[in-house]
Amino acid sequence: MHLPATEAQRELVSRLGRRLAVPMRDVNPATWWRFTLIFSVASFGFLAGLIALMFLVDPFDTGRSPLRLKEGVPQQGPRTANVSRARDQAYNSAIIGNSRVQMIDPAALTEETGIPFVALVVQGGLPKELLTTWDWFMAHRRAPPKVMVLGIDGVWCSDDLSKQVNPFPYWLYSRSTLEYLQGLFRSSSLSGLRNYFSYLIGHRPQARPDGFWDYENVYGVGTPQQLAHMRAELDKPQGTADVNLGSHFPAADAVAARIAALPAETVVILVRPPVYITGLPEPGTEAAKAETVCRDVFAKLAAARPNTRIIDWRFDRPENRDPGNFFDHTHYRKTLARRIEAEIAAAVQDERAAKP
Predict the structure, then answer these.
(1) How many domains does the chain contain in total?
(2) pLDDT in tens, 227-286
(3) 110 CA to centre of own chain
(4) Sign of torsion, CA 350 351 353 356?
(5) Can you give the residue range of the structural domain that contains 300?
(6) What are the transmembrane regions (predicted)?
(7) How many Cα atoms are found within 13 Å in the side-chain-facing hemisphere of 67?
């Protein structure tokens, strides 16, 4: 229940209101201009100082800063960590692709061939992102690469090279300093700066320099119930990638242009990674025809350049009918990864041995 205000109470409220209210006409316009100017200069100075700090610290190790506070970068996702890895001169060969080639261990290839490999893998990466990664790696080679391994799965046969699913920091890989500075104006850059300072003082571990990420640790061994569920999911047919029965394969054209620009002595290995049998298109379908067309496109591309091989596991073969080799339709276990590594290493050694 509200009690009626007395005359004295109303008068008190009125006086307080008059004292607290400051009519705009009573404020000196010069005061507002000074306040606006000071606030704007202070804000601009703060932002400029912050950008200058991030440029000098270079938390993603892009190589643009004259400073080098510490080798490598803190543990983080590959989309940003690969900027540093691709610049590392300790590696003169690269594995580039999405998670379909993630289980190929660069250390295993290094041991088999004597050539230092780095894995520049982008989970869920599409051709535009992976070609950007390729270009960044090539732009930072002081000597020609010895081997380039590129994972080619179904997404490389689309007729749309611009397709994008997950955000990708193109500004980090840009050759334009202005585009890089514009990219620093985002919250993720501040997070990167904070993580880098934590890394500098030893509170955050370093991202693995060679880029290998064993996803078996993510899937785990699994209980009998989990394994049974995994097998049941494998038995279900999976939808295929875009069906392209035309003659326009922009990703293949982009790959052809890049490998043509490589020195003749660089070995190129195109890997079509394994797919569980129910992840392949049904024979006789339009998708199956598109799969054959895509295979032929990349096979011809490999045949057109010396020192280039295609390693194809993406078809019906006994290993791709064994559910014990897979976690899902496109992610395979170490049992297959070791075999693919051995095949890549043998192809590299054969090509290098064939040189005069």
Answers:
(1) 1
(2) 888 888 898 988 766 788 888 899 999 999 999 999 999 999 999 999 999 999 999 999
(3) 22
(4) positive
(5) 78-169+209-353
(6) 32-57
(7) 11
- Buried b / exposed e across 229-251, counting CB within 10 Å, b at 16+? eeeebbeeeeebbebbeeeebeb
Q: Is the pLDDT of residue 47 over 90?
A: no
Kindly tell me if the per-residue pLDDT of 24 is higher than 60.
no
Answer whether 345's CB lies under 8 Å from 112's CB: yes
Burial of 23 (0-12, 13-18, 19+ CB in 10 A): exposed
The token pair that represents 277 in the structure block: 């049998």
Instruction: Compute the distance between CA of residue 79 and CA of residue 170 in angstroms, rounded to an integer.
Output: 9
Tokens of 356: 């005069």
Residue 41 resides in a domain: no
Distance, CA of 335 to CA of 320 (rounded, Å): 12
What does the H/E/C string look like for 89-109?
CCCCEEEEECHHHCCCCHHHH
Q: Which amino acid is at 91?
A: Y
Which residues have CB under 8 Å from 196's CB, separation 6+?
57, 59, 60, 73, 74
Helix (H) or strand (E) holding 147: strand 147-151
Please report, for the domain that includes residue 276, its CATH number.
3.40.50.1110
Does residue 279 belong to any structural domain of this protein?
yes
In a domain, residue 261? The reply is yes
